[in-house]
Give the backbone structure.
Amino acid sequence: MLGDVTENIPGVSVLTDELLERIRDRAAGYDAANAFFAEDLDELAAVGYLKAFVPSSYGGLGMTLAEVAREQQRLAGAAPATALAVNMHLVWTGVAKVLRDRGDDTLDFLLREAGAGEVFGFGISEPGNDLVLFGSTTDAAPDPDGGYRFTGTKVFTSLSPAWTRLGVMGLDTASADAPKIVYGFVTRDAVDDGTVEIKDDWDTLGMRASQSNTTVLKGAHAPADRIIRRLDPGPNPDSLIFAIFANFELLLASVYAGIGERALEVAAETVQRRTSLRTGMNYAQDPDIRFRFASAAIEQDALAPQIHAVASDVDNLVNHGSMWFPKLVGVKIRATETARRVVDTAIRVSGGSSYFNRSELGRLYRDVLAGLFHPSDDESAHNTVANAWLGPLE
């Protein structure tokens, strides 16, 4: 990419320019057809990208969070919906790595299975649940063998056509020590036996290739050896919560940072092609356009270094204590809000052609809006930061 700030960030690179160009070439077609990114996923799996976080001992690439964040920015620049959907698999494998790095082997089974080719979906979000990880509208019913059956509705389940393992959570209200938030994994077999229904309802404004369909759990079973946590509802210092937040927020921020970077690149190419009929000058020489573009580029330049710094702190086991969550939600909000402003500016300086669906900038504009809906949202993020600095409301 022109001016790609990630190129100066050190680390392993898996995604070649040639692969990214093929993925970019398919993105518009997936979007227009509202189709899953099947060919992209096949190619990404073939180069081992789905095993990025998996240690070499389990057949993976052993990459760090900072390295994967860099690659996700590059992938999002080629195809945002592909990057967003792949994120959900990478989040779970990244969670397993964060735990393993801290001496917790709870999710080593996940790393082994990912190394063997399993694809993990993220079945956590629920309609109307603004507690996110701290509460659930899904019922988790214990069985006599230590497993659970989950009943409820999950939304924005990316990779719906492809996941083979789905991480879910629900609320156990029946056990002696209830209530407990229960985290576990179900397999794709649950779709075949009717205890998981995947609705064909992903007809959205943007991020269409992600096919993040609604998932209905109808007593979907996770056996005892796939139940990874039983936690008290509400904010919890458990390492699983930190690992989910760290990977989800940083990899999500990476996707939107990549969208902003690509929007600048397309806008730069566009304004250098356009000529004013009134002045006869190239639009790249227009002082107003130059000022708008430069303002967006200055904002954009801050994203990649911040993502890299915070991700490196996760990798290096830096202890930020109570400031970890403000740092993580702050990165996510800055990336999604900045990317939205950058894409808006890119469209303003590029002219009316970007309003057409066939325009890449038009697609980036639709895709970047999805950043508004991912947790943590703007209000909860500001509340988290305010509490950390000023203490809770009395």
Q: What stands out?
A: Residues 120-231 form a domain with the Butyryl-CoA Dehydrogenase, subunit A; domain 2 fold (CATH 2.40.110.10).
